[in-house]
């Protein structure tokens, strides 16, 4: 498999793992395509993608599923996608974003231990107090409604293997968060967010490392 297609398939697989099944009304994962749709009126909660070897048939099937759900939807399209895929999307009303969104991927490597931060402490979300802090950070950084956040990041999900959220704290104040999914083949980074008032202080780097 081409490395780019492998990266996109990994993204789709981990998106399915990341999104709360209770929020998902439709999902699809197959060669050249993925879709995780909640039906909620937030484009970030309805995410799909097309990549090689998808062709016009896969693109039309994906848009059919999007139309069935009837919610604003984001379609990630690989720069290596067939021209027929782009033609289908354009014909069915999709327009490209002004700026491309990068999919960042790297091969596995041994990481060196990260020195402890003198400013921030980091711990995994593990209780109701932590969950409340996570909701507050995400509410300040993105538009996800708090009730959706609490369902997406339910404590029983975050306590399991393969999905977890971490918070960086400045004393008693939560300032940054990252959510990870992982399996035997890869680790994916989701919802890496910092409260606007604390950006450019290094909290995001610390919580990710």
Q: What would your notes on this structure say?
A:
This protein has seven helices and eight strands, in the order αβββαβαβαααβββα. With 209 residues, it is an alpha+beta fold. It folds into two domains: 3-91, no CATH class; 121-208, Aminopeptidase (3-Layer(aba) Sandwich). α2 runs parallel beside α3 (83-91). It is globular, with a radius of gyration of 18 Å. The chain has a four-stranded mixed sheet, sandwiched between helices. A four-stranded antiparallel sheet has the order 5-6-7-8.
Using brief descriptors, characterize the structure shown:
4-stranded mixed β-sheet, 209 residues, alpha+beta, 33% helix, 2 domains, Aminopeptidase
Give a quick summary of the entry.
The chain is of the alpha+beta class. The chain has two domains: 89 residues, no CATH class; 88 residues, 3-Layer(aba) Sandwich (Aminopeptidase).
The strand order across the widest sheet is 1-2-3-4
Computed over alpha carbons, the radius of gyration is: 18 Å
Strand composition percent: 15-25%
Silhouette: globular
Order of helices and strands: HEEEHEHEHHHEEEH
- How many discrete domains? 2
Mean pLDDT: 85
The helix content is 25-40%
Structural class: alpha+beta
Low-confidence stretches: none
Largest sheet features: 4 strands, mixed
């Amino acid at each position: 498999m081409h490395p780019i297609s492998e990266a996109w398939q990994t993204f789709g697989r981990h998106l399915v793992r990341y999104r709360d099944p209770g929020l998902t009304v439709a999902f699809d994962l197959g060669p050249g395509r993925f879709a995780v749709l909640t039906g909620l009126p937030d484009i970030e909660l309805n995410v799909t993608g097309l990549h090689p070897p998808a062709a016009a048939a896969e693109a039309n099937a994906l848009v059919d599923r999007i139309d069935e759900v009837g919610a604003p939807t984001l379609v990630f399209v690989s720069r290596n996608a067939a021209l027929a895929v782009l033609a289908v999307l354009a014909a069915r009303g999709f327009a490209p974003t002004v700026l491309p969104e990068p999919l960042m991927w790297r091969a596995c490597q041994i990481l060196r231990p990260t020195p402890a931060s003198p400013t921030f402490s980091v711990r995994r979300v593990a209780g109701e107090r932590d969950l409340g802090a996570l909701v507050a950070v995400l509410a300040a950084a993105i538009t996800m409604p708090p009730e959706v956040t609490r369902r997406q990041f339910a404590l029983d999900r975050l306590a399991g293997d393969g999905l977890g959220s971490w918070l960086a704290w400045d004393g008693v104040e939560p300032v940054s968060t990252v959510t990870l999914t992982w399996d035997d083949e890869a680790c994916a980074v989701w919802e890496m967010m910092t409260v606007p008032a604390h950006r450019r202080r290094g909290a995001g780097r610390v919580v990710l490392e």
